[in-house]
Amino acid sequence: MATYLGWPTLLLAFSTLFRTIASREGLRIIEDVTPNSMHSFITSQHSLILIYDEINAEYHSALFEMQKLLKADLTFLEDCRYGKLQSQTFGDKYGVKVIPALVFFRQKSPIVYDGNTIDAGDVAEWLEAAQKEAMKVLNENNFEHLTQASTGATTGDWLVLFYKPGCGLIAMATMEAVAVRMHHTLNIAKIQMNSNPKLVERFKIKKCPSIIYFRHGKLFRYDPEQFDVKSMKVFVESWHRNVKAEIVPIEPSAFDILTDYIVQKLKESDHHTKVYIILPTILLLTLTMLLLCVFCCRKQATYDKHKFH
């Protein structure tokens, strides 16, 4: 009995020793990953994981291609860890439709490989592009400057994801994959909804995640719940023509923001507050703005008079 119980311990010791030696010698191996060890595994700079369900011919073929990647010794991924995880649940978590599948983690951000089959050559090219962050980060300060969405989008077309922490993981992984394939012809970006409420209000975002395609001063909402690379590529290339086009709303001015604020306060206030506080404030602000307009007009008229005499 003692000998029988000792074998698992001995095998584990040999396995640990081998991994330690391989690590010290710079040798890379395909590690076995479990759901419990997944979090610690992807904490490295880059990680590539083969997700599978059953050990069958497809699994062995995918594993063989992955081993070819290791032998290729890709210099741009010298720090990459390779692993395999038997779990359909984790495949669903990242929007994987068919397994076995490859998921690449760039600083914990998942990107699903979208090739028809797992081929070492194509995966190598895909990884070279995937290691570089292609998704831009937009916010209320840089949105209009970078996209020029309301003025004709001279910076090109934009596919933008609106998301929240803990919401939109599948959409994010898919958008990352789209960015890898289409970053030369399409701008891919993300907007954190909690940090940018003005953009959420401006574009009438009602759900999370939401995706909008900006093209030639118009916007098209991606409504299908299918967050996969093929569907998004088809939407951008042609299917958006079947969706109602909306004019991109212009960036609200300071006066628009002030007006909206006053209206909101009026809705929230009781009758006494409206009569004695808010309404007099509105009248005072209106009078101030009128005086400023008169002052500016008179100043311009004086300038023009001196200029031409």
UniProtKB/TrEMBL annotation:
Record flagged with keyword Signal = yes
Q: Transmembrane segments in this chain: where?
A: 275-297
Record's signal peptide: 1-23
What's one Pfam family the UniProt record gives for this protein?
Answer: Thioredoxin_6
Top-rank lineage group of the source organism: Eukaryota
- Keyword Transcription regulation included in the entry's annotation: no
Query: InterPro entries, alphabetically?
Result: Thioredoxin-like_sf
Q: Which UniProt keywords apply?
A: Membrane, Signal, Transmembrane, Transmembrane helix
* Protein name listed in UniProt: Thioredoxin domain-containing protein
What organism is listed for this UniProt entry?
Octopus sinensis (East Asian common octopus)
